[in-house]
Design goal:
Number of strands: 4
Distance between the termini: 15 Å
Number of helices: 2
Largest sheet: 4 strands, antiparallel
Order of helices and strands: EHEEHE
Shape: globular
């Protein structure tokens, strides 16, 4: 099992419960790919460096999880087509 982090930028113009549903769906994709979530950080609403889909702000979430090496590609495949996710990035964390 490797340690990974999934960063999500979620649409800031949707309701709080819809935003929470987006994060829950991403967590569900992680567990479906045999991953175990260790931590979820919510950074809140931040100004974006440049507009994405005509939006200047987004909600930032960072989900740390342990998963096998095949999991990130499965997770990215599912997150890529999610509504209200402006950007995402899944990276392997160092063991240091």
């Amino acid at each position: 099992m490797n340690k990974y982090e999934l960063a999500l930028v979620v649409n800031a113009k949707i309701e709080d419960d819809a935003r929470a549903a987006v994060v829950e769906k991403a967590k569900e994709y992680i567990t479906r790919a045999e991953g175990q979530i260790t931590e979820v950080e919510e950074w809140g609403k931040k100004k974006l460096a440049y507009e994405i889909q005509k939006m200047g702000e987004g909600f930032f979430y960072f989900i740390q999880f342990d998963a096998p090496a095949t999991a990130p590609s499965q997770i990215e495949q599912n997150v890529r087509i999610m509504d209200n996710v402006l950007r995402y990035l899944c990276v392997r964390k160092d063991e240091a």
